[in-house]
Amino acid sequence: MQIMPYVAESIAQELGIEWSGDRTLFNPYLNIRIGIYYLSRLILDFKDVRIALTAYNYGPTYVKGLIERKESIPPTTTTNF
Question: What is the rounded average pLDDT of the residues 7-29?
């Protein structure tokens, strides 16, 4: 999964995963575990899968700002659910 190293490092600490720098993300098991955990947190935070996927792509701070300003949220690249 594509996840920024600084986000992955924070999540790895939450999950008790030893962080060995960016190379940790090249371990498929750890990459998917961290990415799925992060996405599940976004789904819980936004209570909407589409918005959570947009936050995964654009960053949750950016998406929260759009919501606060009542601006339109860009579509995700996935269109079928």
Answer: 95
DSSP the chain: ----HHHHHHHHHHHTPPPBTBGGGGSHHHHHHHHHHHHHHHHHHHS-HHHHHHHHHH-HHHHHHHHHTTPPPPPPS----
Whole-prediction pTM: 0.84
Q: Output the CA–CA distances (angstroms, integers) from residue 66 to 58, 59, 80, in the order listed.
A: 11, 11, 23
21-72 residue pLDDT tens: 999 999 999 999 999 999 999 999 999 999 999 999 999 999 999 999 988 8
Query: Residues 19, 25, 27, CA angle at the centre, nearest 5°?
Result: 100
